[in-house]
Protein 1
Amino acid sequence: MREEPVARTSGLLLLENPKMEEVVGFLQDSFRRKDLVIIVGDCECKYSGRASSSLGHGERVVLIKGDGSVQVHRPTGYEPVNWQPARCILSVSLEGSSLSIKAHRSRPRETLDTVFSSLIFIASTRLMDRAEFSLYVSEEQMRDALVSDPSILEDGLRLIDFERRVEPGFIDFYGKDTQGRFVVVELKRTPAGKDAILQLKRYVDVVGETTGLSVRGVVAAPSLRSGAQRILATLGLEFKRLSPRRCAKLLQKRETRKISEFFRAP
Amino acid sequence: MREEPVARTSGLLLLENPKMEEVVGFLQDSFRRKDLVIIVGDCECKYSGRASSSLGHGERVVLIKGDGSVQVHRPTGYEPVNWQPARCILSVSLEGSSLSIKAHRSRPRETLDTVFSSLIFIASTRLMDRAEFSLYVSEEQMRDALVSDPSILEDGLRLIDFERRVEPGFIDFYGKDTQGRFVVVELKRTPAGKDAILQLKRYVDVVGETTGLSVRGVVAAPSLRSGAQRILATLGLEFKRLSPRRCAKLLQKRETRKISEFFRAP
DNA sequence: TGCTAAATCTCGAAC
DNA sequence: GTTCGAGGTTTAGCA
């Protein structure tokens, strides 16, 4: 006799070595509730869409999330061997003694069919997760990256000075472009707003007065806040996208290169 | 009283609402055996390496494979929020009442630390999976792709004919390059071997005799079988990599473009 | 909606 | 080992 799935404190439902028949309803309920489902068992996969693929029998972990995304994981490899992104239409059916789970989407039109010939266990649960994910790179790290390779902002851009003291404060990056024009860069780790633009404007004015030449002002940030583009254009300043991630990557590269050059030295 | 983890027929070990203390040994054993581990629980994540990231408390699924890869999955999204590729060094420790799982690798130097404050369940199992994964595109589809856009093989390559009847059989693709030289292409869906090369040689010779001009012979395949490069060079023929996937992608693009052009038509 | 560029891209092959 | 290119790339930012 089989026991019914038991609801845990966390709302976890577990089926160990379940029968195919009972699994159909179990999965349909889980999909309807948009719960997360983990299936471990022996399955085949067929994918058809942008390309076609087939994968014979083997024991795998299948992860089906409430958003309709599907992943089939083999025992090794970071990436799923087969998958389907979110917003799939999921359907479960019994095919003889096997269980078929189809994940279909249009645009692009593609289907992943996972057919289980045996099941080791199935878990279904609703996960609570409201946390915010944040990738960090400091403004100082971004400045270091720009100083070490100004071309990440603009081709041919060269460094004159950084953290340069001028009347209202410090210029993050001070350089010269391919046409020989001075460039003042205001760096922001987060989307740049009016404050950053006005700050830059002051620096540009000061440098313009000091040198008596026309000076370019560039806001370098991951993006502009809404409305900032308008102010920027009004003041004759520019925006250049600079992603914190790219800066971090470049710094990492420089770091490893330094180390390798050190070891290569005689 | 807690019951001991029970070994299933499949070698599955399950812990439901386990205590942190018992989990440490459980995970260390699993990692040593290089079994696959699934953990569901409330955790925080900190990543540091190429970039830095932090993720606050939330219920997630963590998948740790025998190859040392780690994935932290939130309730939605196809991709893991945090991850670490294969060949990581895994370590488990108790930090107060929390469980910390660190995945570290060098080159690039980066660490993912996942700290569980509570556990819903843990599963550990060895998966048997020896199946081969294959992506399908027929040779005919590859030929269609090449015919519809010869530049995927070589810049400026133009089509003269395909499936062209010559003495020993059919030339897959017959064209002309930017220098006006005739090009005979032999297509293979799988790594090309001696047979494909000799076939191509016959076509090239026939076309050369017919036209009285020098003719280029190109093997287009995902790769060359070992030793084939040598024969190719000896016979004065060329190899151009052509992936079935890229052909499939191109065909799909053409298809969608056709459809959109159809709908756009007046 | 479609494109273009970046990704903690990953992964594999060639050099 | 390192570099280079492809991917069912995915994803985010913009026009």
Note: Residues 77-79, 135, 241, 243, 245-246, 248-249, 252 of chain A lie near DNA strand C (CB under 10 Å from a C1').
Protein 2
Amino acid sequence: MTQARVITPLFEDFAKVEHHHQLACQSCALSRLCLPLGLHRDDLTKLDQIIKRSAGYKRHQILFEPSSTFKTIFVVRSGSFKTTISATDGREQVTSFYFPGEFIGMDAIYQQRYLSTARALEASSVCELPYERLQEFSATIPELQNQLMTRLSKELSSDKNLLLSLGKKTAQEKLISFLLSLSQRFSERGYSSMSFQLTMSRGDIANHLGLAIETVSRLFTQLQDQQLMSIQGKEVTILDLPALKHRCG
Amino acid sequence: MTQARVITPLFEDFAKVEHHHQLACQSCALSRLCLPLGLHRDDLTKLDQIIKRSAGYKRHQILFEPSSTFKTIFVVRSGSFKTTISATDGREQVTSFYFPGEFIGMDAIYQQRYLSTARALEASSVCELPYERLQEFSATIPELQNQLMTRLSKELSSDKNLLLSLGKKTAQEKLISFLLSLSQRFSERGYSSMSFQLTMSRGDIANHLGLAIETVSRLFTQLQDQQLMSIQGKEVTILDLPALKHRCG
DNA sequence: CGACCGATTGATCTCAGTCAAAGGTTGTGG
DNA sequence: CCACAACCTTTGACTGAGATCAATCGGTCG
């Protein structure tokens, strides 16, 4: 039996909402992680009216790119996305991965245009938050404004941590911190922090961490040999969390 | 004659404000670059009352560190600062440099605690924006809220660009893009974009770009040999801007 | 079934890091 | 005001972590 057969769609629970495109925030499984957090019931009702629940995106489908006009911030409803930024000669850097409840496109607020390209890693769906309307609403809902600032600040924090990885960590430390941060985010979403599926390719991981694809592959086998984790295709199982935490820099 | 003798304090124009600690935003030379941008005259007067103009910081003096409690966002009034983030074993990554009009500490909004350590690179001064008061005011001044979001988004953008540098660029490309971004920022502040003083050490630059200090030093001599720029100590003069732009990735 | 794409493994190479030493610069105290 | 010390920068020689090149394997899909 190969492990490929047993892969179930990631974030299946959240994916259910795809069948109810107009599902209100109040009833959404994500509300605990998403914009609604801390908002009053009636504010939420108002917000609900401006949020557009988009149709699904297929694997590799583009959510936005620098040439798109900036009008909305996206929230992942189900599935996952990656964003990339390009050098003038076409080299690309994977800047982030996004999971349900996370906001994509906030770096476009300054300059009012997307800086990066966002692509679906698997069948996914998003909610669209029209930025102008969001701004209007923030004026009357202080908690919404607070929520937006917090989101921006959170992304800033994770970017700074990635800078530390890229600038100062060894290949192994980079990979371990990356996997531990994934584990953390899965756990926040109600999934196991000890065993999860990678929705991105080895190439995406390597690029994100400033490594070669072969290095990532070798590190995976190395981590398995050291009994720190088990990796079978896309499935990661953490075997020795303390040891990993000790080795993540 | 050594170039050291002719160095004048950087941001001298802005430094003048140090003699008028209570100088209102309206009269501040920075208002064009700073928070006041786009704010109405009477809103600004209100804002003025909550902004604390701090005494000066000496070279190497700490503005905040992770153990400090988060209460304020800082705006550079004169001089310059760097922020660093630390790995568990003490390795540090210089995440950003900050010049007059730029905001420091926004990554602390999420978690309500500073993620990084901020240190003055030279004799400097800041304005303190109490975050809670700022939040209150934002509720009544939509333009202020917009300004804050834009600032956060701008920092996010520059971090993403740095990620591209660290992940995908060669040592030379990293250094050139860094110098060109400095040039840009100096020019925005009314200084020459073709000739400016570095306020940070070679070590800070190297660390920021994920390089060794020796590599930065060698690259400087290399760029001089290629007649692309001239570097004498802390003074940088751009000689061939098109060629540099062509080589910055 | 065959073609294609992604992942693994091995062999080799290279860019930038490390180590080492010598100049320069800055700051301090007598 | 000078002299010494501490620190920063430059330059050279060598090394190594991870990239590149190359071949193979495996899984997926038409």
Note: Chain B touches chain A through 49 residues (CB under 8 Å).
Protein 3
Amino acid sequence: MAINDEVAARLGELVTLTTLADGTKQSFRVRAYERARDAVRTLSAPVADLTAAELQQIDGIGASTAKKIREYLETGTIAKLDELRGRFPPGLVEVMRIPGMGPKTVLLVRDELGVASVDDLRAAVAAERLRDLPGLGKRSEEKIAVAIERLGLHGKDRRTPIIEALPVADEIVGLLSAQPAVDRVESAGSLRRFRETIGDVDVLVASGDPESVMDAFGSLPVASEVLARGETKSAILTGSGLQVDLRVVAPDQFGAALLYFTGSKAHNIELRQRAISRGWILNEYALTDEDGRVLAAATEADIYGELGLEYVAPPLREGVGEVAAAAQGTLPDLVQMGDLHGDLHVHSSWSGDGRSSLEDMVAAAAARGLEYVAITEHAEDLAINGLSRDQVREEREVIDALRAAHPELAILHGAELNIGRDGSVDYDEDFLAGFDWCVASVHSLFDLPPEQQTRRLIAAMENPAVDVIGHLTGRRIGRRPGIEFDVDAVFAAASKTRTALEINCHLDRLDVPADLLLRARNRDDLTFVISTDSHHVSEYSHAEWGVRHAQRGWVDRSRIANTMSRAEFLAWLGAKR
DNA sequence: GCCGTTTTCGGCCCGACTGTTTTCAGTCG
């Protein structure tokens, strides 16, 4: 939501500037602002609706930050922020983006060399003036020089879309698992939490021979450069500029290490605080008691159990209330792959961009054990890919024949309609009535003002033929932002019109986005469907991504329509239509 | 700056790697 993102951005500025003011990221004030920023970012209500007292009720926001938020909402500015901006101008803040340039070093080069921008620093490096500063040397100067030239290409704040990072991680995991010294290997970090973008790839290995694992890691074909190499920890850069961190632990410590390396940082801190409150210590090696005895280490489940918590699935580990929920036994009932009994958004080569035949798509659905599938070709308004009315009638006859050949599968003849500027869709009312299931999606006009997008989406949902809105925002992760609209109004309309919201499984969509799913986490009045939007038989397996994304959004199984059995689903659809 | 089934004051997660040190500071996750 726009206003929450805006406030979170101001709090994020306070994080950066306070890091400089305090000289460390570890300062309690910095961490407090970080918590407040994350709390606002994941808030389910618009922050503008809350009084200072209500803001203080939010975990991580105290009197001081609540006051600053109200100050910003009422005056458009925060005095404290303005003061810090005056002390640390944007050019200097930019210097902190360079890997290796932390607050201490930034202030050192400012005070000693008058550096106030990245350009200044580049010049100072060229003049070899850094090497004589206390704590720095020739080697540091060279590393900073390299880092400056890489800035923008892969600075420490660059994030990689999951669709790019996942194959790299899979390749590395595959190659390492073939190493004889490797007992076990798994990717961790934000990739395991299934974040939409990844900072770097984290890989964890269990081995009794760390040195040979490090050797193998450094000489992987994807490694274009070794950034760091220690006894248990190394980092490489791939040719595409993605950083991969490797950690090696003993096999009996794998659970503790996986927990630590998966994060998030906020989740880890909460777990470690919980350990401390019992007089224990949790680190990446084990959970130990006051006498140093190991209470749990081998598996994550053991550690959660010892801490009195339900197991928390990785996609939930963001420090947004999951630890408290795990303590109270109120974690969401998460959907699993085995729960999905149908796929309600599937194309075949009848659509211009479909790549498998209708017959193959149907056979593949049956082979996967699906109980129902909706064939939803593009509709006529999508000029290149859409079907004319004659083609729709023609395909319907083919589908009728396929039904006879696949009695185990309920085949719905559907369509993916295009939502026009005013919310209208393809075809007329009578023709639409011939479909069993209609997805309606935005495929155009992504830049309309939010009020128009809101009206457009609501108008489409009010159309009785529309069963579900496809890929709600239309975003392509890392490539195209989604459309902007009034989320609460759209959710309310979805509830009122009983229109489902699709969770699109494609890795560059994952749409509805997780932050919007989180905003809806207490809305039992909304129905979702997890759909692959397959254009090829191989894409049914993308359901796994949608499941993990739904988990990340705290969407419980009961709110997902395609967890219903065939009979339940058809009854539900009949009652709805 | 936040927070309280030990606390409204006094704590706040924990450890690895690098480069510069000769026992540690800075950075990172």
Note: Chain A has 24 helices and 17 strands.
Protein 4
Amino acid sequence: MLDDTHKLAIETINLGKQALIFVPSRASAEKTAEEISKLTTISLHDLEQEVLKVITFPTKQCRRLSHCVKKGIAFHHSGLTSPQKEILEREFRAGRIKIICCTPTLAAGLSLPVYRVIIKSLRRFSEKSGMDWIPVLEYLQMAGRAGRPEYEKLGEAIVITKTESEKEEIYSRYILGEPEDIYSKLAVEPVLRTYLLSLISSRIIRDEESMSKFFLQTFWAHQFQDLPRLTSIINRMLKLLSEWQFVTVSGDDNISNQDKNSLASSNGPDFVSASSLNKPLGMKVQPTAIGKRISELYLDPLTARHLLDCLNQLSNQNKDPETPENLTKPNNNSSQITSASDSFPLLQMISHTLEMRPLLRTKSKEQDSIQEELTKNYSILLEHEPNVYDLEYPEFIDSIKTALFFCGWINEIGEDYLLDKYDIRPGEIKVKLEIADWLLYSTEELAKLTIRREDINQIRKLRLRIKYGVKEELLPLLKLKGVGRIRARKMFNQGIKDLGDLKKVDPANLSQIVGRNVAAGIKKQIGDEVKEIPKGTRKGQLSLSKY
DNA sequence: GTATGCTGCGTTTAGACAGCATGTC
DNA sequence: CTAAACGCAGCATAC
């Protein structure tokens, strides 16, 4: 029951030192921390509370962390909120937290007073080969956390092995082994098309000459010395950008817009004709207005194309509500039951992008319920459902799940419930919301350029709801400074539903709901200068839990 | 009766960069 | 199909 990792951790504490324990999964980070925390005699009540209270409605993850932290132990992974991570780092530096069990989050960048690094396993799951050895580079990063010069004269890195033969293998592979070479990723398609558009937009690439000049100077060219291959990928990307009308190419027949309607030809095996490898001089490339904006927004052109296509569909749906698709649109009362809403199509649109990856994974148990939600909303989706046997189908289903999570968020579902229902942790929620905000902003910008005024409002509204995590009904109240989802909801439930209601409400009542200072601030903002709000008969604010 | 522990089985599996413009509880 | 380990349910054991 007491395994080597636990013993080492306790021994480190007894030495008066601190340790980092690297583990291969988030679940095991939490479990290891929890187990070790049961073995210490430390008691830090203030930290226990601080960690718990970073969210209005703490999740089970917050509770678990706070229990560990109380005993001077912590776990650290991408699922934590950044305030929590900051607390852990601060307290580890202060020497109150003794041990942090972490995934590779802490393997690079940070300098902490770590005397000992304990690596529980050098294997990690990989899609292609089950549990696989991690790169030597990563081992070095982890080991390098121990004995930082600012804190320690000496550091130890200890790798736990399960068998004698594994010990041999680890020794030769990691201790004696050379770190891997670094490879350029420039030729990876999403990367290349993004940078190609950016280079064209910033006018660094204008023609054949400036293009080869630039790419010849890249690390990719230096490393592979295989310009023909790079050229062929570049030409393929250029052709795509041109077909998507993000750039215009002139003076070269091979990459003209002539076949922009035949996407099939661009995917065919002969996408690079012999002549396009050897183009006549005089080819000129220019960004289109949209292309330039896409590049400023840092969107992958493929994503931009996807957003534009969906916007097109949205526009059509809004324009003529009599289209067959819209006849089946769930407009009747029964649709109230669906967890999704009008926003679902746009949320699914942003969920089904490379930028949103990794999407929320649909677990086998959820398959049916997600499918069900899909069929409920199928008719209003902005893109076509791929074939069930398509390789991309699972990703599509995951985009539905991700969209459902967003739907939950903008319907004021708490983070604790989202964790249970969608297996998404607070830290991950933050990240997803940021990406959603970025993509919705980008969508809005693209809509502006394609003159779809009427759709812009819809997008803007959704963006606000994502930002605050509220139902549409709270939006009027959120215009006020000092009012977020929590206070807005409190006021709304007390019958204060818009700025007009706020004018009418008695300052004393308002301060009972949101507190005196905030109430005064609100009244000031709507033009009612209140000299002094009488002190309420009851202290403090009404608790939200009552509603 | 109840807390604890063991076994077997099914299920899951790390992380993080972009735009924009500031202020939630 | 690859592999380890987590979580949970069901059940045995110790008190």
Note: DSSP finds 27 helices and nine strands in chain A.
